[in-house]
Amino acid sequence: MKYMSGIRIFLFVVFAIFAQTGNTAASAMDDAKDIIDRNSGQSNRELAEKIYTELNRKYSGRNGFVAVYDPVRGAEPHWIGVCGGDYAFRYHGYNLLVASSSSGTSALNRSWAYGKLSNAPLYKKGFWGNQVEIYAREIFYRMSPDEVGDICDDWYAFGLVHHSANFYAKADWSRKVTYTKLGEQRRGGHRHGYTFFLFK
Question: Are 155 and 199 in contact (CB under 8 A)?
Fold first, then answer.
């Protein structure tokens, strides 16, 4: 499970794919890097679609998920967890994360997942009874395992990124839910909130 905070400029790719063994995971990561080598500079959506399409073709016996999002800054802008994969951070300006679920894994209960993500906490009660913002790491551990279950048992990719990061995800419809939850608007137009994702 990996966490990154306050990186000045990066484009992060979450790719939960096609890795039945460690060797397969390493091979899939090499394939993903090669796709970035040939397509660096493309939009979040374009890159996610290309990676997903190619790895889905090559590793058709695995279930896959790809998410790409823009640079994030500040304290705890994101926190993610994946099962059975590998990662490569700051690769040609991108971060990649690779994981997988087997073809026999049951589909995600999308109604249940939507309910859990839409009810994710963004605030907690402060010392004086006031409302205090909470950030990605704390939110993640408030939700897993108590709300969304355990890694590798109930999900294979779960996390949240700041809502301004233009998050884009690609996976089979039956295995993925994303939800953007916004809090109150701050001074200067800034707004607290995250895009959540869950993949099985």
Answer: yes
**Structure tokens of 66?**
């790809």
33: in domain: yes
The CA distances from residue 192 to 125, 156, 158, in Å, are: 16, 26, 19
Structure confidence by residue, pLDDT tens digits, 22-81: 667 778 788 888 898 999 899 888 988 898 999 889 988 899 888 888 876 655 888 988
Give the Å distances, CA to CA, from 184 to 23, 64, 118, 132, 179.
Answer: 46, 34, 15, 11, 17
Tokens coding 105: 């894994």
* Residue 6 is assigned to a structural domain of this protein: no
The answer as to whether 5 is a domain residue is no
- In this structure, the strands spanning 65-69 and 168-171 are antiparallel
Can you give the pTM of this predicted structure? 0.84
Q: How far apart are CA 116 and CA 198, in angstroms?
A: 10
Q: Which residues, other chains included, contact 198 with Cβ-Cβ below 8 Å and sequence gap of 6+? A: 108, 113, 116, 117, 148, 155, 157, 158, 176, 177, 178
Does 79 map to a domain?
yes
Domain that holds residue 150: 11-199
Q: Domain total for the chain?
A: 1
Could you give the CA distance from residue 111 to residue 96 in angstroms, rounded to a whole number? 28
Q: Strands 101-102 and 123-125, how do they pair? A: unpaired
